[in-house]
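Can't paste images in this forum, so I'm doing it all in text. The chain is below; anyone willing to post the predicted structure tokens underneath?
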Amino acid sequence: MMGKSSAFLSFVSAVFLCFAGLAMAGDQEIRIASVFALSGTASASNLHQVQGVRYAVEELNRKGGLFGKKIKLIEIDNGSSAILSKLAAEKAVEKRVHAVIGASWSDHSLSMAPVLQRAGIPMISPNSTNPAITRIGDYIFRVCFTDILQGNILAKFATENLAAETAVIVQDVCSIYSLELASIFADAFTVRGGRVLNVLDYKKDQKDAEFNEILKRMGEETPDLIFISGHNESARMIKQAQNLGLQSYFLGGDGWGAWNFWALGGHAIKSGYFAAHWSSEIECGKAQEFTDRFQRFYYVNENAALAYDATMLLADAIERAGSLDRKKIRDALAATSGFEGVTGMISMDENGDPGKKNVVIMEIRQGKARLHSVMAE
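Text version of the structure:
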């Protein structure tokens, strides 16, 4: 006959096994949050990242998901602001997601990362380039190059390819991305023997008349190069600069890559250059295959490709981890080496950055962007 203590131990063991079984069953639902701007000023440029993640999850689920379980995609709106991005990250924690893909803009990712780091939830940003993001903690990763790399490559392109000796830098004082990239470019340009004549500030919501005042100051400097570290508003500025007869080269970062850059005046730009993460013109089997498949459903661009890569890398890490334990997923992401993505090879360094990816230089001619070159540091 079983004693009281033995019966109690058996009861405790049964309860433990019951709850353990429930926990394991719960963990069999793979929950991935996609955190981007679904509303507000960033929503137009973030649309392609949303579609890239969505397409990747649909593709994975068509193939049976992971561990034979379908992936549940939870799309969360960050409202195009840093404050709402923090709240979006907190919502992802409440949803008990296994990982987060997002955000796009560096300002948004900088607000999300501390929340997810504290919660021990892996986060992969497709295209937040600010170097500080992955320094926040060991659960934070990205699949794009950083502003350090693109700033240095753009300075190299300016001095070697454009033979620019002088530059005026124009930066959005309300954008962490713009300020950081402008600073990195200025330092790299100076190290290469270039001379920065002036640094001009603006706010992206300024009216055209206010931009004109900045442009007049640019013209007075007569620089070889005008470097604008903004986003879509850069197109308005360049269009007006051309109308004023400025003859300088125009150069920008990956912020020029969004479709609304073209909608706001990009199609009127006669000449310019900007950095990109990827181009569908690159003759690479994986890139071409992605373009052929993706464009049947959505508009294909670098933002969609980066978001697709981030999602497929996460899936690869989960499979390598052999578990839905967030710590094991983090460890697998950190150990990533030689992952062949659409946008290039990814091998994570000690900071959670994808090594030294190439920078694509796009050339604008008569309102159309085309591949100019692919550059390494």
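The chain has a mean pLDDT of 91. The two ends are 77 Å apart (CA to CA).
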